[in-house]
């Protein structure tokens, strides 16, 4: 299992306990205030500008967000000729600090996992800690790790 000293050396931490469901943690510093980073996740008009894989068809990203504890969200997009939709329920909403929400692809709703986005002021910018847990298996975790790493890069470009 990753320890705090290991996390300082790497931007990715993985749960290595075989009995536990796999998880991942990504950390990224942004040259934007927490309020701006939070808005990129919370405002559907902003989210559609950066969300989706590199192969997303321009203009295809749609987002419906009911940003409150118990509120639902749904994000859809076309990529590589396929329609994709993910959604879930907000479990915790702390403006400019933290979002916790369930995560399930429309095609595999039984594979629900949990995402936590934490924001901390970091000088003139923000340290984002992204934790995604309760994956069904290591393959799902690894696929999401690649996807989230790409998305955080797109978020960084959007915030620049």
Secondary structure elements and pairings:
Elements: H1 4-9, E1 12-14, E2 24-30, H2 34-42, H3 44-47, E3 62-65, E4 72-79, E5 82-94, E6 98-105, E7 113-122, E8 125-133, H4 138-159
Antiparallel strand pairs: 1-2, 2-8, 3-4, 4-5, 5-6, 6-7, 7-8
**What is the CATH architecture assignment?**
2-Layer Sandwich
Q: Give the CATH topology.
A: Alpha-D-Glucose-1,6-Bisphosphate, Chain A, domain 4
Annotated CATH homologous superfamily: START domain
Radius of gyration: 15 Å
Alpha-carbon distance between the termini? 34 Å
Number of helices: 4
Keywords:
160 residues; alpha+beta; Alpha-D-Glucose-1,6-Bisphosphate, Chain A, domain 4; eight-stranded antiparallel β-sheet; 4 helices; 8 strands
Concise overview:
The chain is an alpha+beta fold and 160 residues long.
Describe it for me?
With 160 residues, the protein is of the alpha+beta class. The chain has a single domain (20-159), classed as START domain (Alpha-D-Glucose-1,6-Bisphosphate, Chain A, domain 4). It has helices at 4-9, 34-42, 44-47, 138-159, and strands at 12-14, 24-30, 62-65, 72-79, 82-94, 98-105, 113-122, 125-133. A hairpin with a 3-residue loop joins strand 5 (82-94) and strand 6. The relative contact order is 0.21. Residues 1-18 have low confidence and may be disordered.
